[in-house]
Amino acid sequence: MVSTSTLKKFGLLGSLYLSQFLPFWFLYEALPVLLRQQGLPLKMIGLLPLVAISMTFKFLWAPLIDRYSVARWGHYRFWIIVFQLWVVAITLLCSRLNLQEQLPVLLVGLALMGTGCASQDIATDALALRLLAPQERGMGNAIQGVGGSLGKMLGGGGMLILLSRWDWQPSLWMLAGIMMLALLPVLFYQEPERKVTAPQAPLTPSNYLKIFWRFGRRPGMGRWLLILGLFAAAHNLSFTMFRPLLVDQGFTLAEIGSLLGVAGTAMTMVGAVTAGVFVTRWGRRRSLLSATGIALFGVCTYFLPTFGLSQPSVLYGIVAIVFFALGMVGTTSLTIMMDKSRPDMAGTDYTLQTSFIGIGGILAAALSGVLAQAIGYRGVFTLSGLLLLICMVLITTVLPSSHPQPAAAIASHNRDAS
Predict the structure, then answer these.
(1) How far is it, in rounded angstroms, from Cα 19 to Cα 91?
(2) At a CB cut-off of 8 Å and minimum separation 6, what does 363 contact?
(3) H helical segments located in 302-345
(4) Whole-angstrom Cα distance, residue 210 to residue 318?
(5) CA dihedral in degrees (267, 358, 53, 334; nearest 10)?
(6) Which residues have a Cβ under 8 Å from the Cβ of 137 and sit 6 or more positions away?
(7) Cα atoms in the 13 Å half-sphere on the side-chain side of 352
(8) Which residues 6+ apart lie within 8 Å of 196 measured at CB?
(9) According to the model, what pLDDT value does residue 45 have?
(10) From CA 37, how far away is CA 129, in angstroms rounded?
(11) Are the beta carbons of 347 and 66 closer than 8 angstroms?
(12) What backbone phi and psi angles, to 5 degrees, belong to 196?
């Protein structure tokens, strides 16, 4: 039976992840479609994801968020409130801009919005690590996955629907209003005092670089970061080319949107919740191996449309497997990432790991078109499968066969949260 205090934690985290992913997916999915309708050239649209590039490099300022704050507001709670209000304010300012006449100013504003989302993500992840006991991390990260998926639905598809019916200004007002509502739970939350277990040296340039160096030199960390980057590369390599494959098969934008945006996102949430249960019962290693194995099977199903099997039932089956596996891998990986993060440097350690996911995904997506032109869709899918096989081998060498919850860690968490 889940306790009331645990439900409150999950509710808080769900609202935080929903609010931070709303503007991110608006920038990443809805905005390119809107600006293309306004006549923006394809070259410019291809550069639009750069306004959210701070999500990949946010680890660079994560140590500052770990180190400095206003203690009476709660260390990470302070930063969450500041950056959430930052994003809301910039959203309202951007709503007053003319898309055609003030596009350069708008892009600067959107880049600042992306930086605010990235910075809030650092503080939210660190707060989640402090908030969740080790045995709660599986389901806690499932909540993160569900919140992120809902943010994708509302910020991507939902905002496109709003923009098709309303003007630019009222649509952004609605986006800002939802983010303000999602901020309410953290305003009423009292973060426990943050206890620093060791004296902190001044954050000089030399000490700043040592933070990253020491983290990367921890036993097994290099292979773990490689796993994160390789899985992201494998998924993005194949999925980026699956979309144009559907276009080549004659599917309309509406059909692709329904298949990937609705069915795919829903299956990601199912996979995230499933992993939340399995991580607790099976342990980290078995769950991650199983999820990666399902992902490998999903990549194999990508071959079916290349042989002419592109009936709706086949495609929905492919998407169900691929996105279910994505949700499972995501939740399990995020749980392990929490385990590998030091409480004193929660934002930095966790963010460094997520940055490897972003870097691996971006590089693979950028190369996918070039590779597809050279070796075809089947060649790309084969390469993606090989990367996943490498991941499975590495998982067996990095993660212990059992992943017990250390009693000392649980006791320490309970003392900190009391």
Answers:
(1) 13
(2) 233
(3) 303-306, 312-339
(4) 45
(5) 60
(6) 279, 335, 338, 339
(7) 22
(8) 344
(9) 65
(10) 42
(11) yes
(12) -90, 120
Lowest mean pLDDT among 2-6, 123-127, 173-177, 288-292: 2-6
Residue 132 to residue 129: CA distance in whole angstroms: 6
Residue pLDDT, tens place only, 299-332: 999 999 888 888 888 999 999 999 999 999 999 9
Torsion of CA 249, 250, 255, 260, to 10 degrees: 30
Count CA atoms within 13 Å of residue 149 on its CB side: 27
* Contacts by 216-220, CB closer than 8 A, 24 or more apart: 218/340, 220/398
Mean pLDDT on 266-277: 90
| Cβ partners under 8 Å of residue 72, min gap 6 | none
Contacts of 308 (CB under 8 A, 6+ apart): none
- Secondary structure in 3-state letters for 236-259: HHHHHHHHHHHHHCCCCHHHHHHH
With beta carbons less than 8 A apart as the criterion, state whether 333 and 108 touch: no
Distance CA 158, CA 387 (A): 34
Cβ proximity of 345 and 122 under 8 Å: no
Question: Would you state the structure tokens that stand for residue 183, as one six-digit string?
Answer: 């901020």
Q: Half-sphere exposure of residue 223, counting CA atoms within 13 Å on the CB side?
A: 12
The first and second tokens of residue 135, run together, are 């045995």
Tokens of 359: 């870097």
